Structures are given as structure tokens and as C-alpha cells.
Amino acid sequence: MLTPYTAGRPLMVAHALVPALVLALVPAFAWAQTGPPPGDIDPQLARLLATMPAIDNHAHPVLPPPNLATDRGFDALPVDNMEPQTDPAAWRPDSLALADAWKALWRFTEAPPLSPEAVKRLGAIRDKVRAQHGERYDQWVLDQAHIATMLANRVAMGAGMEPPRFRWVPYIDALVFPLDNTGLAAATPDRAQFFALEDKLRAQYLQAVQLQAVPPTLDGYLTKVVTATLERQHGQGAVAEKFEIAYLRGFDFSDPSREDAARVYARLVNRPRPDPADYKLLQDFLFRFIVAECGRLHMPVHIHSMSGGGGYFSIAGANPLLLEPLFNHPRLRQTQFVMLHGGWPFVHETGALLQKPNAWLDLSQQSLVIPPRTLAGWLREWLEVFPDKVLFATDGYPFTESLGWEEAAFLASRNIRQALGLALTGMLRDHEITRDQAAAIARGVLHDNAARLYGIP
Ligand SMILES: [Zn+2]
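Above: inputs. Below: predicted complex with zinc ion.
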């Protein structure tokens, strides 16, 4: 049973602590546990990478106590109620890397997989640490992973998750689907859950702009709902907008005229079961309208671009090459697009798209699911061609009892530093870059590229 979203508001309280100072007190990552042998990474680079403060482009932190137990705002489409899929090895309870995170974060030294009793012991130690830190717990987690700033992809923020350590990235998919979604929901059991959640979130967005139902005309909908919601979220501190539209449909967005979209909207609004082709035309128009508005408001657009979630996810429909017409449209050139999760398995296609001045990619999810040496292969390719468009990101998410958002953020952060170390060491040893250039690329991926994109320190 899914619990309703918490209707929290982001708190805009500036924090007095300078992240870099806090991070300096935390010991460096231990490199000699799971992962590549230390000799494979240039020692000077390894030292530099181990504690360099990062901007995490994408994660789903959970609120600290006292709201921790009831928080469901960490995802618009929580993935814990989907039909069974084959989980990646890194999410499974016997993943060796888990032990590294447990030991570093909680001084918990049992080996995976844990028995039900051991899971309880792990939970008890975690709860103790959470209670010790209280509302400052989430900041403490960031310190352990050497993350200075985390972009929190959440429905709403809340106490203990304030700037400058946390920045808000809300969800906007719900506004692409303003008609009756019963037909779309019938496609798969997972989509039945997703569309029910999107309908609920859209109702919440309507309420926030003092509306009970969507307006009868497209003009009314665009002004009073879409633009009003984007401006409200921007005003409340949102630094980007997130689409997980690949869970709901493919990336094949056509470019319909406003007149055609207005006709479809007026004819189908508040009617049951809209014609699928007409509805798609309206969605295509709305998606383009939203990303253009994000460009006007200087909010980059985050797009889930990787295989998964769920066993019914259309991998072919989420090929990032399908996004090229958007990146190329002159009207959308002011919009910055971030392909979250680096487009796996289409890693070469995603890399080529970085040529567009408005296209970026981040390392979230890959950094958790793909081991560092494998990731280092295509990371090197990306860095050799477009080094200033790649962003550090973890996708820290409350996956399971043994892999919470804390372990996920910690492991992904360590894995990225290892993968970067391997890729940059290879480039150094092949005389492709100087030591200074290697350091600059490392700083770019971990921090400076995102700082430039969002205009944050
Ligand atoms: Zn995510």
C-alpha cells in the first residue's frame, strides 16, 4: 500500500557551515576494499580524488528524524511496488561492496548477505546513528561520501534538507498527462501504478494553484497550471525539473502546432478514454512547452535515460538518440538537458550527443550498478571527447534494507572516484593529457561542471 505524499515545502534557510570545511574533517575513502587494486590508479590522482568535494547531480535522500519513518516524498514513482524484475547484481543482498559501506558508515562488520537477524542488527545501528545526528543526519551522510551539495530529486523537501547542502529538483511529468489516463494505465501492471501516482501528483499541483480541475482550454491549462507550477517550484528554490517520462512512454516526441494541440485538448478534456494518437499529439506539445519554459526560467531539464525501472520498461523507447530533435530545435536551444544515468546501454550514442551545446550527462545509477573498471571504459571515451559535459551523480535511493540511500550514495561516490582514477590514469600514461589537465577534468566532473550548469558554488 502506498502512502500519500507529504505536502512539505522547501525551507530556504541558508546554512552557516561551509561544506568544504566540514568535508575536510572526514577521512578519505579506503581504496583497498572492493574495486580495482590501488596500483592501477596514479597515486597522486587517487589522493586528489579521494576527498574532493562533489556536487551530486541526482539522488533521492530521505528526510532525517523526526520525519524519516513517514517520508515518501523521495520519488514521484516509488519503485518498491512494481512487478518483479531481474535485479542488477549491485542491488542484491549478496553484493560484496555493501560490506564496505556498512563498515565505513556504521562500523558494522558483518558480511553480506545478511540473515534476517543481522538485517535487524544493521537497522538498529543505523537508527542509533540517525538519532545521534537528528535533523543534521542527512548532512552527516553527505560528509561521509564527500558530497558538498546534493540535488535532491523529491516531490517536496522538508526539515533537515536545506540549501546550500541540498537543492531541490521536483517532478513535472504529471503535467504532460492531463487527460483520462485509464487507457495508458492499462498497458502494463507497472504503468497502472505509475499513472495512478501521476494523477494524484497532478491533483496536488492543481490544488497548489487553487484549482479543482484542469481548465477547459489549452491556453488556460498552460498559463494557470503549467507555467504557474514551474514558476512556483522555481520560486521555492528548484534548480532543475525532472522527467521520468521514460517510465510512462517513449522519447518519440513529434512537434505539433499549438493550434492542433489546442483543438485536441478542447475536444478531449474531461472525456473518458481519449484517442491514443490524439492524446500523444497533446503530450508531445506539452512536453516541448514545458522544456521551453524551463529554458526561460533557467532550470535545466533532467531526463531519466537508462534501462529500467522495472521489467516492463521500454529500453528501446528510451534511446537518448530519440531526444536529438529536441536538443537540435532552435526554440529549445536555451534549455539545458541532462541525460540522467548516462543513457546506458546507449553509452556511445549519449557521448556523441554531448556535442550539442545544451546536452549533458550524469553518472547516477551507472555508478552504482556498473563496477568502476567497466564504467571507466566509456567514461574515458566521454572524457577524451567532451570532458566538460559529464557530471558526478549517485542516485542515492532507499533501495532495500541493506542498501539505503546512505549506502548507495557512499558506494556510488567511491565508485565514480575509482572509475575517474582509472580513466584519467590511462589518459595520463598514454600522454593524452598533462597532470594539471587530469586534475582539472577530475574537478570538472566532481564539481565544476555542475557549478557552471546551475550557477551554484
Ligand atoms: Zn533517480
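Residues 58, 60, 153, 395, 397 surround zinc ion (CB under 6 Å).
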